[in-house]
Specification:
Blueprint: H1 6-9, E1 13-19, H2 24-36, E2 42-45, H3 51-58, H4 62-66, E3 69-71, H5 73-76, E4 83-87, H6 105-112, E5 117-122, H7 131-135, E6 139-141, H8 154-166, H9 179-195, H10 203-217, H11 221-243
Parallel strand pairs: 1-2, 1-5, 2-3, 4-5, 4-6
Helix pairs in contact: 2-3, 2-8, 6-8, 9-10, 9-11
């Protein structure tokens, strides 16, 4: 009997990206976790580790370390992922801080299972991901703890996230909007904001808000394109009204 990895059951391809890792033990343990859950692609963003030593900590998952790809942060944004998930131990408690407005691991699981190609991005062991990096992510996940000490080791955090994603056995397929369609919707939202003379400093906030709402809502292609049509029509109506006061 052939044992199929959970990653195949859910029909979602998940890549793990580590931002500037400095500890070989974390890289090795993350490779072991990936093998536990049937994942294959490890992306190392400007790593500071000795790969040979990381292989030792990976044990039977050393092949995942061997196949790891060395990339830059900007490369992640152009690799065709349907969803890029950033992680942080410092979630926002202020409604105005939309960049760190995070979902928990159980909510993220439902979002990820509806996609086809996902990147889970883990921050630096010491300082995590910057606000600028988190702003480029579609969704941000944070694991809340009952104490004031919120920072988890990145391999421990990944174990919790992957368990939540793969603990169930049912996945409902819907025709999800593509990355191109989502980017088009966000583009028109930004253009509409500018056309409506929204204050300049709020435009990037609107762009991030749109990306987060879409990332959490799992829209279909048809839904996104209907919204694109609505925003385009609204923008044209405002422009026509300004020409004929």
């Amino acid at each position: 009997m052939q044992i199929r990895p959970f990653a195949v059951i859910y029909a979602v391809r998940i890549s793990i990206a580590l931002c500037e890792p400095v500890y070989e033990v974390n890289v090795g343990h993350i490779a072991r976790l990936m093998m536990n859950f049937g994942l294959e692609e490890l992306l190392l963003i400007e790593p500071k580790v000795d790969i040979a030593r990381a292989r030792v900590f990976a044990a039977h998952a050393a092949s995942i370390v061997d196949r790891a790809r060395m990339v830059r942060f900007d490369d992640i944004l152009h690799m065709g992922f349907d969803l890029i998930v950033g992680s942080t131990s410092i979630a926002s408690k202020d409604r105005s801080n939309i960049i760190r407005d995070a979902v928990d691991a159980s909510m993220l699981a439902g979002i990820v299972r509806s996609k086809e190609n996902v990147c889970l991005l883990l921050g630096r062991e010491s300082t995590g991901l910057t606000n600028e990096e988190l702003a480029r992510c579609d969704v941000v996940v944070s694991i809340n703890t009952p104490t004031d000490y919120k920072a988890l080791n990145i391999s421990h955090a990944l174990a919790i996230i992957l368990y939540e994603i793969f603990k169930d056995s049912v996945s409902i397929y819907r025709e999800q909007a593509s990355r191109e369609e989502i980017d088009l919707l966000i583009k028109y939202a930004v253009e509409l904001a500018k056309t409506a003379n929204v204050r300049g400093y709020r435009v990037p906030m609107i762009e991030t808000a749109m990306r987060r709402v879409i990332g959490r809502s799992m829209p279909t292609s048809k839904e996104v394109m209907l919204l694109v049509s609505l925003l385009r029509s609204a923008m044209l109506a405002i422009k026509r009204a300004s020409q004929f006061p």
